[in-house]
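Notes from the 1:1 (GR / supervisor)

We went over the backlog. Supervisor wanted to see one worked example end to end before approving the batch request, so GR pasted a single chain during the call. The sequence is below; no edits were made to it. Supervisor asked that the structure be written out right there so they could see what the output format looks like.
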Amino acid sequence: MGIGQDLIGHVHDIKYDSLPEEARDRAKYFLLDYFGVALRASETGSSRVFYNFVKKHAPQGPCRLVGALTLTDAPNAALANGGIAHAIEMDDVTTRSSLHPAVSVMPSTLACAEAHNPDPKRVIEAIVAGYEVTNRVGNAINPKSHYERGFHPTGTCGTFASSVTASKMLGLSREATSNAFGIAGSQASSSMQFLETGSWTKRFHPGWAAHSGIMAAYLAQEGYTGPEDIIEGKYGFLHAFSDDAHPEFVTERLGEYWEICETAIKPHATCRYNHGPVDLVIRLCRENDIQPDEVSRIEVRVPETAVMVVVEPSDIKVSPKNVVDAQFSLHYAVSVALLRRKAGLDEFSDDFLRSKVYTSIIDKVQCYGDAELEKKFPDEWQAHVKIVTRRGTFEGHQDNPKGDPRNPLSWDELIERFHDLTGPVLDAEARKLIVERVRSLERLKSIEEITSLAAIGEGARA
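Structure output shown during the call:
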């Protein structure tokens, strides 16, 4: 067997009772975060498009949309819920593979659970399996090379993960799961061209991945076949999508550690490459009472890989035209962190962009890719910030942004974040019940005890 088949065997055999407690706990941890992010993202303009699309064009079914009362079939629920959850750039992220696992793994798992198998223990198995796949394939594709080729790993690698989560929920055999995985390889796609125009297609990528994975599993369930070596084959994913792939990472220490435990939370509403600098700017400002009007220059250094995503082209990064431009501008993120000592949803909104208050700082921000920081990337997403003021120069360095497993949010901090995110769209009682039910997920009778609560945000949004 090849590496792809080794991975399939590994995830097919995942069972709730054999998982370590840490992996089961992280499945619930990231599920709660997914619901928090998706519910808040239900307010965005791109999310309204998904709601309208499902109402007008998708068939009815048993599956709920997060933040709406609409019911549809599993593929379209996964499409919408994945697209919705990725809209505010606060969904979880991995360090090595530079992708967002929850926004494809959770929608495909939950949709298939509602449609076919509501057993909460099976949901936990599928979530852990999905993170194993998307992260390991993402590690192997080499995010730097993948980005340079113009692909977004959240969408490409998420398609493979979603085929596995759907297969787990459908109870497919190992052979059928392998076929679903192979079929998924012909659907994996996601273009980084959105960076040039600030369009919404990045948000579409995980939804399409979740949809595609379910379709792959349905086809495999009916006997459709896919290539067994879709990952490592001559025309397979690693060869076609990367100039510097590392196939050995697919099966690296397989079963010795769990990728879901290597995944991070995003406290700020911006691209993960910006988080280390934002953490440092906020810390330096608070520790030294730095005021915006005394700053003459801010020098920011990040790994060289970050440059293509958040530093260049400079004309767009220093003058963002829309929220997507702002989410992927290191200059903008540093400016709002200095001005507001935070970088949340208010700072990455149309209203704040229109205010133009950040223009007093953004021309003072100088961003560089640093070869020394690149040496430890992607194992560490280091950042270095120097703020020059009339009172002197203040400088800081950080190896891992807040939310990284090595600098984590506790359960209490995650729950506080959930309430902050969902306060505008859910009442206090519903929020409390979601937290309680997610934390006791394996003891519920059905996943619908949670998804039914997450569907009632529409009243607050209307």
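Supervisor's comment: The first helix runs from residue 3 to 12.
Batch request approved.
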